[in-house]
Write a structure and sequence with these properties.
alpha+beta; Alpha-Beta Plaits; two-stranded antiparallel ribbon; 5 helices
Length: about 190
């Protein structure tokens, strides 16, 4: 199926959200809320929030907060990409450079079992198998997911080296970060 074809059935889609510009938690929450309020997108599940060190970025770059959400949609992959890119712009993202800080970053990881390869969109996400910050929270939502290209379960890719690259932020840590942000803003 081409990404432009009409999607007659609802698809389960996994999106990765990330931010490394304060207030990171608020940015993730706003992004989730706006996606959930978008016509044609129904928010189904949300992973925990994970903190990760930036990769291939300048020393001193702030850490990222990442999470994965699962949505149901009848939008086509191209329509969903257009909506997520617009939301990124609306939430202050000005650069699509891979090595720049981000107010918000939204990546389409999986779109049902579809395999798409166009100039503007590759699904499954081309680097999903290399990204602990996307794989671990995605598997938190559904540990039976498989790579549509190979049929390999994604859980087979997650080893001890992956687990050491992410840190889940529990409610206590989240509250502490929110309190710290409020104190800094006061």
């Amino acid at each position: 199926m081409t990404p432009e074809a009409t999607n007659s059935k609802s698809e389960k889609v996994y999106l990765s959200l990330g931010s490394n510009i304060e207030p990171r938690l608020e940015r993730l929450a706003t992004c989730r809320e706006r996606l959930g309020a978008t016509r044609g997108i129904e928010l189904e599940a949300t992973s925990g929030v994970y903190e990760t060190r930036p990769e291939q970025m300048a020393p001193g770059t702030a850490t990222f907060l990442n999470q994965v959400i699962c949505v149901e949609t009848k939008l086509t992959p191209t329509e969903l990409l257009e909506k997520t890119e617009k939301l990124e712009r609306d939430l202050g993202r000005s650069s699509k450079s891979a090595n720049s800080s981000r107010t918000i970053d939204i990546d389409i990881l999986l779109f049902g079992q579809q395999i798409i390869h166009t100039d503007s969109l590759i699904i499954p996400h081309v680097r999903l198998h290399l990204r602990a910050f996307a794989l671990i929270p995605m598997l938190e939502l559904d540990n039976s997911l498989k790579n549509p290209n190979t049929g390999q379960p994604y859980r087979e890719l997650v080893g001890l080296d992956f687990a050491s690259k992410v840190k889940i932020i529990d409610e206590r840590d989240t509250e502490n970060e929110a309190e710290q942000m409020m104190r800094l803003e006061a």
